[in-house]
Amino acid sequence: MIDRYVIRVMSPADIGTAVEWAAAEGWNPGAQDAACFSAQDPNGFIGGYVGDRMVASISVVAYDPSFAFLGFYIVHPEWRGQGLGYTLWQAGMSYAGARNVGLDGVVAEQENYKRSGFQLAYRNIRFGGRVRTQNAVKASGVSVLPVTGVTRELIDFDRRLFPAQRTDFLDAWLTADGHIARIAVRDGEIVGIGVARPCRSGWKIGQLFAVEPAVADALMAVLLEAIGSVAMAPEVELYLDVPEPNAQAIGLAEGLGLTPGFETARMYTGRAPGLDLNQIFGVTSFELG
Fold first, then answer.
1. Do 164 and 69 fall within a single domain?
2. What phi and psi, each to the nearest 5 degrees, are found at residue 23?
């Protein structure tokens, strides 16, 4: 059977299949994730095939010559225990080349990732629960506005809090059907970005980047109000993935009544990027960083 095992770049349909597998694993992907994720690097979505059937998946999305992010590492349950996943893992890491590779892995697999050269940087915590969509909060001197296009200023602000420039991804992510994207502006400058997206179950907020807690609170309030208008409900199921070192972000989640669900280990093959985690109130996604 291994003799018939072929590794190749996924088709768009197969990327959709990988998202379905992620849903089956309980990862609760967004409705537009497949299209948005592949916009940055379609060659980074790699499948393992027996005949014409994809039996394993991995994504190693190359953002630039120095950074990539690994996700969607799944072997279909019928094909586990035969070494197919590890063979695909090696192909994915080969595609990454000399780049610093990040991942959000389940904590239980942390030792396995260490054996592949990854080192723990910190943990992310997924908070979830039901929240009210009317939660009016204002930050002094801050306007929260709809995103009408991916500007140079927006790209640069995002780059401050992500290890690489990701223009193609942002262009898809901020304008995808069903996504709600807002920026916070003070004195003509962007001081925050927030995105809400519908998922298989409820909504996720991410990214949620802000220069200070008051800006994050204001963005969250506007996003919740917009979600409520779409869902036509005073209360919705909500998820927020928070870097554990950001105590203010944890406070925001807990203040909404959200509770911890599970953790991931944020790991890198190289040095952890020097990002200000105190300005990251919500991770964009566990699949792409």
1. no
2. -65, -40
**Residue 21: what pLDDT?**
96
Query: Which portions of the chain are predicted below pLDDT 50?
Result: none
Domain co-membership, 133 together with 103: no
**Whole domain around residue 133: which residue ranges?**
125-282
Torsion of CA 208, 210, 215, 218, to 10 degrees: -10
Q: What is the per-residue burial (b if ≥16 Cβ within 10 Å, else e) of 149-181?
A: ebeeebeebbeebbbbebbbbbbbbbebeebbb
Tens digit of each residue's pLDDT (9 = 90 or more) over 158-204: 999 999 999 999 999 999 999 999 999 999 999 999 999 999 999 99
Looking at residue 140, its pLDDT comes to 78
Find, among 32, 43, 51, 34, the residue nearest to 68 by Cα.
43
* Total tally of structural domains belonging to the chain: 2
Q: What pLDDT does 48 receive?
A: 98
- Domain CATH number, residue 9: 3.40.630.30
Q: Which of residues 86, 121, 156 is at a domain's end?
A: 121
SS3 106: strand
Which of 54, 48, 62 lies closest to 13, judged by CA?
54
